[in-house]
Amino acid sequence: MGGDMSYGGFDFRGKGGSYFWLLVWTTVLNIITFSLFYPWSACSIEKWKANHTYVDDNQLVFTGTGAGFFGTWLLIIILTCITLGLYAPWGACRLQRWKTNNLHFASPGEYGDLT
User: Fold this and answer.
1) Would you tell me how many other CB atoms lie within 10 Å of the CB of residue 46?
2) Which one of 25, 53, 58, 101 is most buried, counting C-beta atoms within 10 A?
3) What are the strands of the beta sheet with 53-55, ordered from one edge?
């Protein structure tokens, strides 16, 4: 069964400096708001990752919003606390499902390379 089994070229074009500053300001806002800002910071990070990721030269885009994620995030927190942490694996899957459902290919010329 020799041969190349790969079907697509994945390319990540992000730079450490811009990611560093994104992490700094989102962390500061999470500290100031006692993590109430987390849904918005998580969306900012996902948007940055998607905007710098290409599959076969097609850029990804993350369309989720903090407001749209807030209810899901709150439910995960509450259920994880009520079950003394037992819900955490299901919560992690729910979080990943939400992220994936908000990930799409950008329309041609929609975003451009944001390096």
Assistant:
1) 19
2) 53
3) 10-12, 53-55, 58-62, 103-105
Q: What is the pLDDT of residues 24-59, one digit of tens each?
A: 999 999 999 999 999 999 999 999 999 999 999 999
- Exposed/middle/buried for residue 112 (C-beta within 10 Å: 0-12, 13-18, 19+): exposed
Element (H, E) at 12: strand 10-12
Contact 17, 10 (CB under 8 A): no
Mean of the per-residue pLDDT values of the chain:
91
Q: Is 54:13 a contact under the CB 8 Å cutoff?
A: yes
Q: Please report which helix (H) or strand (E) contains residue 7, including its range.
A: none
